[in-house]
């Protein structure tokens, strides 16, 4: 979650977000449309930080300010919820359980405070899912990606990119070699490690505060060899939040300025859809033909 919650959320409610110039965000995606699926229950207070689908196609929405992850069916009807402290990303694991980061609160960026961030898990098949802590010792965990063997990669806005083994222990040797937060350099041109996706043997990580809305490319076998996957808004700065894989060669990024930017990782070509409100996260819908985006005002929309 960004620290500019109140200002950006109020701006999103007050006006439509202006279009990003084509030279910055790429051409407008052809034949695109945006439709609200879930209206904001309580604008701003119901801030929708992240979204993820379970195996049954139900959508889970992290409402960070309300310490809850809400469940919605395919028609956008509220059908359940679990209590999680300051939830961030919510993801389906290879075992069919849902996993979420907990502690996505700017207070966890304060130096010297205990590291209280966690990864939690629950079974979406249960009528009243019980939440279990999987990992501890994180800072301000937000983004989360889970590989087929259960390994978890976290975008932690305090610690940087963190690898967590299936048993919940932090791989500190790997993490020490990965990009750190608040340690910018020529490649890591920003702070606020956030969205994470994994494709094959590579992790892609977004930084909320980047001079060019940069997506980092991190080889899983050699995290110190971090490179640049894409600069989504160069030459201007931007504010990229969560990411989603689109097929095996493209990434969709949600931005706080209200755009969904889709970039082809092989060619670098981009296109953008203006959603009209500050966005926090993006996911591929079960139909595989549309994207679903969550916003700072608490609503969730379908982008085709």
Automatic annotation (TrEMBL):
Q: Which residues form the signal peptide?
A: 1-16
**Per its UniProt record, what SUPFAM superfamilies does this chain match?**
Calcium-dependent phosphotriesterase
- At the top level, the lineage of the source is Bacteria
- Any idea which UniProt keywords this protein has? Signal
- Return the protein name: Gluconolaconase
* Organism from which the protein derives: Gordonia spumicola
């Amino acid at each position: 979650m960004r620290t500019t919650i109140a200002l950006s959320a109020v701006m999103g409610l007050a006006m439509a977000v202006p279009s990003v110039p084509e030279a910055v965000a790429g051409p407008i995606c052809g034949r695109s449309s945006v439709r609200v699926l879930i209206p904001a229950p309580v604008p701003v207070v119901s801030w929708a930080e992240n979204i993820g689908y379970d195996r049954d196609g139900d959508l889970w929405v992290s409402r960070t300010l309300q310490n809850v992850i809400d469940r919605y069916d395919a028609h956008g009807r509220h059908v359940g919820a679990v209590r999680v402290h300051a939830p961030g990303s919510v993801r389906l694991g290879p075992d069919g359980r849902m996993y979420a980061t907990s502690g996505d609160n700017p207070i966890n960026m304060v130096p010297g405070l205990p590291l209280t961030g966690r990864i939690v898990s629950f079974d979406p098949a249960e009528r009243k899912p019980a939440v279990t802590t999987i990992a501890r010792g994180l800072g301000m965990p937000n983004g989360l990606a889970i590989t087929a063997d259960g390994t978890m990669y976290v975008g932690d806005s305090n610690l940087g990119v963190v690898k967590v083994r299936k048993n919940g222990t932090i791989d500190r040797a790997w993490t020490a070699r990965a990009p750190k937060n608040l340690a910018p350099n020529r490649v890591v041109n920003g702070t606020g490690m956030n969205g994470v996706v994994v494709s094959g043997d590579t992790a892609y990580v977004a930084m909320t505060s980047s001079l060019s809305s940069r997506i980092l490319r991190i080889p899983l076998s050699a995290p110190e060899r971090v490179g640049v996957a894409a600069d989504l808004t160069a030459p201007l700065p931007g504010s990229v939040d969560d990411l989603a894989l689109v097929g095996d060669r493209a990434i969709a990024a949600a931005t706080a300025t209200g755009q969904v930017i889709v970039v082809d990782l092989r060619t670098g070509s981009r296109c953008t859809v203006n959603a009209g409100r500050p966005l926090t996260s993006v996911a591929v819908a079960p139909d595989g033909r549309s994207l679903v985006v969550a916003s700072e005002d608490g609503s969730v929309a379908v982008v085709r």
